[in-house]
Amino acid sequence: LFSDLPLIRQVGLFVSAGLLAALGAAMLYFAQLERPLLEPRPWAAGGRATPPRRPVRMAALAAAALALAVALFAPWLLRWNDDIRELDVAQPALQANDDAVRRAFGEDRSGAMYLTYGDTLPAARRHLAAFLAYLAQAAPGAEPFSLGLVLPTAADYRDAPARMRALRDFPPAFRVALAERGFRADAFAPFFNGWDLAARGRDRPSYAELCGRLENSLAGPLRLLASPGAGAGSRAWFVTLADGPLVRPPPALQTVDASELQHLNRLFSQYRWSALRLSLIGLGLVVASVFALYPTARAVRIALIPAGSCFFVFGVMGLCGQTLNLFHLLGAFLGVCLAHNYSIFSSDSSAAGRTPPAPVRLSGLCASASFGVLAFSRIPVVHTLGLTVALIVLTALAAVEIEARCRPVPA
């Protein structure tokens, strides 16, 4: 819930709300029963664990040693790959259609496109003026076009009447030029009337009213070139198209190029580090609560099974050459939290020398099946989450079973 990424906040909200609702429903339901302990069927109830045969115990110890080696050393082979395109759904047909439409409208891939933004429309226009001045020096032949040029800056609007009075010879010269080229000058009467009123400063709206008129004019395709940023938390922005090679504007100009919008990997990396920090804080609180409630030996066992399962899965991914991203991290956090449940509930049966209880196995298998289905999704985010959680849950269940068979055989 404290993440900077809206997707993670939404996952946290729905998962937390669902778990709290399930806990409340379970407490209310069992409170209505005189005998709240509902035993499973005799064939599923389990019982005291029979001492494992020596070959079985040796095989379990070998599997545990191999898993420990993978968990300790293989994760060092992992590499992070922060790519914002992981949020995209691969649709070749849609991409081909998009390319065809762009070619039909004559879009030239050799040009550059920039987006200048600000907290308000006047701020975005001020940043646009600074960016255009920078672009004139960095790429003199760029010839930029932007809808933002329709709106003057606040300084230009303030100085406009004085500049127009200094251009007193412009209206008659413009009339002569129109007549020489075959136009009827009286057809431009509204323009000349507006020029005269603006030069005298009459009926002149404030700059805020001028910005409001532009906001009301942005409809249909025009909204693809500019946005007033009217909604809460949204920003105003202007699109600028320019010829020539792409230039990288400095951050102070509040301008990014179109390719940077598609590959905001630096921002994606910041989200990952934020999620990692929050996950470690949350897991630290969980582990601290375990050590506060259970004796040290049992607390260590409870904490090691989820952590070992997570590192083992990451180790296997490292051996397979898999790169990790933010959503592997989020899936690992969910998987470790689920694995803590199985480790806690199997702790009592382990201390009593019993086999892992049926609810642990059933809950784990249901969780792994649910997230395993998501692993078949073609959406990269859903696939990554489902695969990571399912593997960690299955590994934790296997660790619980192997641990029960690694106990020494009584003499």
Give a nutshell description of this structure.
The protein is of the alpha+beta class. The protein is built from 15 helices and seven strands. It is elongated, with a radius of gyration of 33 Å.
Count of distinct strands: 7
Helix/strand order, N-terminal first: HHHEHEHEHHHHEEEHHHEHHH
The poorly predicted ranges are: none
**N- to C-terminal separation?**
53 Å
Largest sheet: 5 strands, antiparallel
Mean pLDDT: 81
- Described by the principal axes of the CA atoms, the overall outline is elongated
* Helix fraction bin: 55-70%
Helix count, per DSSP?
15
Structural category: alpha+beta
Rg estimate, integer Å? 33 Å
Strand content: 5-15%
Please, could you describe this protein's structure?
The structure is a single chain. This protein has helices at residues 6-31, 42-45, 54-73, 92-104, 121-138, 154-166, 170-180, 189-200, 207-217, 258-262, 265-293, 296-319, 326-351, 358-374, 380-405; strands at 79-80, 112-118, 145-146, 226-227, 236-242, 255-257, 323-324. The mean pLDDT is 81. With 411 residues, the chain is α+β, with helices and mostly antiparallel strands. Strands 2, 3, 4, 5 and 6 form a 5-stranded antiparallel beta sheet that branches. Strands 1-7 form a two-stranded parallel sheet. The relative contact order is 0.14. Helix content is 62%, strand content 6%. β4 and β5 form a beta hairpin. It has 15 helices and 7 strands.
